[in-house]
Amino acid sequence: MSIEIQNISKSFGSFSALKNISIKIENGELISLLGPSGSGKTTLLRVIAGMESPDPNPDSHVLFFGEDVANKPVGDRKVGFVFQHYALFKHMSVFENIAFGLRVRPRSQRPSENAIRDKVHSLLSLIQLEGFGTRFPKQLSGGQRQRVALARALAIEPQVLLLDEPFGALDAKVRKGLRDWLRGLHNELNTTTILVTHDQEEALEVSDRVVVMNQAKIEQVGAPDDVFHHPASEFVIDFLGNVNVFHGRVNQGQAVLENIQVGASDISIPAGEKANVYVRPNDISIDRVPTGKSSIAAKVTRINRAGVHAKITLMLHNQEEIRVDITMEHLLELNLQLEDLVFVHPNKARVFVPDYTI
Amino acid sequence: MSTNSKGIAIGQQDPTWVRFLVISISIAFVALMLVLPLGVVFWEAFRKGVSAYVASFQDRNAVRAIYMTCLAAGIAVPLNLVFGIAASWAIAKFNFRGKSLLIALIDLPFAISPVISGLVYILVFGMQGWLGKWLDGHGIQIIFAVPGIVLATIFVTFPFVARELIPLMQEQGSEEEWAAISLGANGWQTFWRVTLPNIKWGVLYGVLLCNARAMGEFGAVSVVSSNIRGGTNTLPLHIDALYNDYNSVAAFAMASILAFLGVITLIGKTLLERKLQQETSSSLESTTTEESQ
Amino acid sequence: MMKKRSTASLPGFRITMGYTLFYLSLIVLIPLAALFLKAATMDGAEFYATITSKRVLAAYRLTFGASFIAACINTVFGAVVAWSIVRYRFVGRQLLDAIIDLPFAMPTAVSGIALMAIYGPNGLIGKHLIPYGIKTAISPLGIVIALTFIGLPFVVRTLQPALEELDGEAEQAAASLGASRWQTFWRIIVPSLLPSLLTGFTLAFARALGEYGSVVFVAGNLPMKTEIASLLIISKLDDADVPGASAIAAVMLVATLLILLSVQGIQWWSQRRTGRA
Question: Where would you tag: which of B59, B86, C52, C134 has the fewest CB atoms within 10 A of its CB?
Answer without folding.
Answer: C52
